[in-house]
Each structure stands twice: as C-alpha cells, then as structure tokens.
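Minimal example, chain plus adenosine-5'-triphosphate.
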Amino acid sequence: MDGQVMRQARAKVNLTLDVLNRRSDGYHEVEMIMQQIDLFDDVHIRRTSGQGVVLTCSEPSLPIDEGNIAYRAAMHMIEHFGLNTGIHIHIEKRIPVAAGLAGGSTDAAAVISGINDLFGLGLSLEEQMMHGLALGADVPFCILGGCAVARGIGEKLTPTRGLENTWLLLVKPNFGVSTKAVYEALAIDAIAQHPDTEAMKRALLEWDLETIVENLVNVLEPVTMQMHSEIGDIQTLLYQHGALGVLMSGSGPTVFSIYDTYERAIEAYQRIQLHYPQSYVVRTYNSTV
Ligand code: ATP
C-alpha cells in the first residue's frame, strides 16, 4: 500500500534580474533569466496510513510545520485533490538557506511533482506549475527547470537556451538575507543599471561567453551590497582567482562566478573555501530544453 518517490530538488541562479514595477498588491513585476544548477536537496515523499503531513529535515534550523513551504505544498495537494491519506516528507538539505538560490521554492516544486507521480494524478507540467504558483512566485520555474526567461511575478516562463555544461563556483557568506527586506529597500526609480534581457538571451543562443559575462546584471545586487559590503569583497576575491564573470543570485547573498573549465573552478574553490567554507563547485543543469 505504501508507495514512495524521491526527487532531486535543484537550486537556481539568476543570470539577469530586473524589477519593472511594484504592483498595488505588493508583488513586484520582474524580468529575469533563471538557470537551474546541479546543487540539490533530496526530497523523499512517502504515503502513510495516517492522516496529514509529517515532515522531517536534516537541517534543524528549518521549521517542520506550516512554516516550511514543502509542508504547505503537501497540504495544498491533499486539500485540493481530497487525498485521504497521510504523507511523510523527508528533506535532506544541501542548498544553503535564505541564500538567493530558491531552496524553499524547489522543495515545494519537488513535493508537487512527487505527489503527482505518487498518487497518479496525471497533471500536466502546466497544471503542476499552476499549483506551484499558489505556493510562491519561483515555484513554477523550479517545476519547469532548465533555463527560462521569467516575467510577471516570475510565473510567466519562456524556456530558452541556457548556460550549458558550465562550471560555477557559488560562495555563500555566513549570513542569510530576507528577500522581502531587499525588495522593500529597492528604489525602483533610482535603479542605475537595468539588465538587457534580450542581449543576454541572444548571447546565450549564440553561445557568446564574452557577451554573456558582460550582461550579468542583477538590480538587487547594489541593494543587498549596501546592507552587506562583504558581497563586494567576495566578488573582488573571485575576480582575483580567475572568474570570467561574477553576479549575486536573486536577493543574495550568494555570489556565483563563471569559469571556462572545471580545473579553473576547482582551483578558485580551493583558495576561496579557506575564507568561505560554504563554497560549492556546481554545473549548470539543462535537461528540459
Ligand atoms: P529565493 O531565492 O526564492 O528568494 P532563498 O533561497 O533566498 O529563496 P530560501 O532558502 O527559500 O530562500 O529560504 C527563505 C526562508 O524560507 C527561510 O527563512 C526559511 O526559514 C524558510 N523556509 C521554509 N521552508 C523552507 C525550505 N524547505 N527550505 C529552505 N527554506 C525554507
């Protein structure tokens, strides 16, 4: 009777992030290119003979009740589909928390996709993404995966050619950042540099690495940097150790850098992890495009 599934819930980085305006409901209209990476949490989902959701997590600082977005995703599916069952979820957390890597959103995406399979719900990708949006603006992208241009509040997605088989070094300083606080501190009219999303898209399609690197722009970067000058120090350090390009992901504080070979990424990692133990060499992930 008991079935189970496992999902690798992958993180993302932003290759561009633009904020166009603030809507009256408090959401921000964005335009951004999101790229999935091969850094993932393992999400185990099991049906049980009880009722309701039981969540366990390897990271003790995370909530295991409604405070956890994966828990809310499971409750949403149980209620929406009238599933008369219990669900046990275990998250083996590897993605740093509050880091700008969509760690929570991707766990929720894994739960929706996992429950779809486990209960044979037969939902299309679009339907799963619609349920994801009820949980958060970044969840639909995490369900879609690969690389995509995101518009609206992040839910209008157009798959595009991404950074294929590229090695990145991610550096997460020893503090988290509240996405809400960063967006609140952003003065949209005073944004000094907006990304050129079309130019980045073209550069990715033509695989022009030099132009890709020139177009790495995130309008939230100066905002978070103003709060935490260490982000600028990390970027300088990454450039000193052979990075072709560097950008803060999402609302931060994680900074990622791009290398042309695995060897260069590892060389940089070996030096930088002495200062920043939460450093990761990861490859971009593009299975769906
Ligand atoms: P984004 O890039 O979408 O802004 P993030 O990577 O900056 O997200 P998360 O790791 O998703 O941030 O964490 C944001 C907050 O959500 C944290 O304060 C954390 O307590 C809470 N949270 C709830 N559920 C989870 C989860 N499954 N994984 C990580 N954080 C979670």
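Residues 62, 68-70, 91, 97-105, 107, 138, 179, 250-251 surround adenosine-5'-triphosphate (CB under 6 Å). The domain at 167-283 is CATH 3.30.70.890 (Alpha-Beta Plaits).
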